[in-house]
Amino acid sequence: MDGGDSVTNQSINTSRRQLFTRRQNSEYPHLPWAKQAQFTDLCTQCAKCIPSCPEHIIQPGDGGFPTINFQKGECIFCYQCAQACPESLFYAQEEPVWTAKAIINDSCIAKQNVECRSCGDMCDTQAIRFKLAVGTVAQPNIITDDCTGCGACVSVCPTNAIQIKLT
To answer: Regarding beta strands 66-68 and 58-60, do their DSSP bridges make them parallel or antiparallel, or are they unpaired?
Structure first.
């Protein structure tokens, strides 16, 4: 490089490098009951989990690793993906599902003072509650202890303001 062309770490897109290192973004859950920290080491990308999902939310992701697309629906925690997997990728069904929780970002239209409660209406565990406030519409509040990370709230959000992330 000549003196005028310098590359900083901020300008390098490292997300594509994860394909070659078999590492995925560990911020998002892979599959329920999956050994999240060892997922890319144990998964052989056989895709047997994909057709086993009755909700059709498992799809091939980066590098062929299965991933959950909450835009297609919610996880009903049926354990069928784990039963279809020939590898020792999953914990027993009696173990906790995962530590994933819903997170609502600032693009939520309720935070823009527009009435919307679609996420709360879809939450079976009532983990998303709305706090009344004077002079504004009710604001969503996630009770993390009640959130299962099922993703039912994700696909109904009109602004894609909800993500399911590992805590």
So the answer is: antiparallel
According to DSSP, residue 137 is labeled: P
Strands, E assignment, 7-166: 58-60, 66-68, 100-104, 128-131, 139-142, 162-166
Q: What is the pLDDT of residues 81-139, one digit of tens each?
A: 999 999 999 999 999 999 999 999 999 999 999 999 999 999 999 999 999 988 899 99
**Annotated binding-site ranges for [4Fe-4S] cluster:** 43, 46, 49, 53, 75, 78, 81, 85, 147, 150, 153, 157
The pTM is what? 0.79
pLDDT by residue (tens digit) across 9-49?
A: 444 444 444 444 444 455 789 999 999 989 989 999 999 99
CATH number at residue 78: 3.30.70.20
**Which domain, by its residues, includes 104?**
100-166
